[in-house]
Amino acid sequence: MALPSSARVYDYLLGGGHNFAVDRDTGEQLARVLPVRDMVRFNRSYLRRAVLAMVEAGITQFLDLGSGIPTVGNVHEVAQFANPACRVVYVDIEPIAVTHSALLLADNPDATAILADLRKPDAVVDAPESRSLLDFSRPVGLLAVGVLHFLPDFDDPWGVLARYRDLLASGSHLAISHFTSDRMPREMAAGADIFERAAEPITPRTRAQVLSMMDGFEIVAPGLVFTPEWRPEAPEDVPSDPGCANLYAVVGRKP
């Protein structure tokens, strides 16, 4: 592989086995400038809590954008454990991620993975696999966790999310987590420089920029916070400096 992949680097940092030497090298470079292993752990835990909160709110179908390579605690595992009726469509542009997801889901009729570009909401929603599993006339849990920072400004992630919002029914939820430089600007700049040599460079964004991605959604408590601060299950789950997570987290509901 000529370039490291964000999905495979993430897999490596989580302790997965679906990665190459170039991905592992990038992960180690990142670990020298940022607490990336803690960051991905906090992000994965937030994803779990956000999914459970949506299930509690009555959501039984999920569209996971930029889902990455399967690892412990996938959306379908969390959602279907809480409610076996849940259905999940994973979306990724990385062929390896989709191939491994398809293998993992071969015996699960209520979950599937599609190779698609999240920047094309109509194509994602209209994909045969999406239409066969999800009823878009009913609320959907849209997950954009740890992925939107891979969209540069010229890809207009705000407009992309607005289109998904328009395609989803009232009562749908959106969960976001996003890299920021607000807390550790120098370290995040060093991390961004490393990602410049990867297949998908990153664009960290400010609190205001991330918050504006929720336009048209009613933000649920506790609002926009760092990932470990979003509805922690125990006080000890929140580090003394939550900002070390370097990812904002927020969930909203479409009125």
From TrEMBL:
A family per Pfam: Methyltransf_19
Listed InterPro entries: SAM-dependent_MTases_sf, SAM_dep_MeTrfase_SAV2177_type
GO BP terms in the entry: methylation
Lineage: Bacteria, Bacillati, Actinomycetota, Actinomycetes, Pseudonocardiales
Name by which UniProt lists this protein: SAM-dependent methyltransferase
Molecular-function annotations in GO: methyltransferase activity
Key words, A-Z: Methyltransferase, Transferase
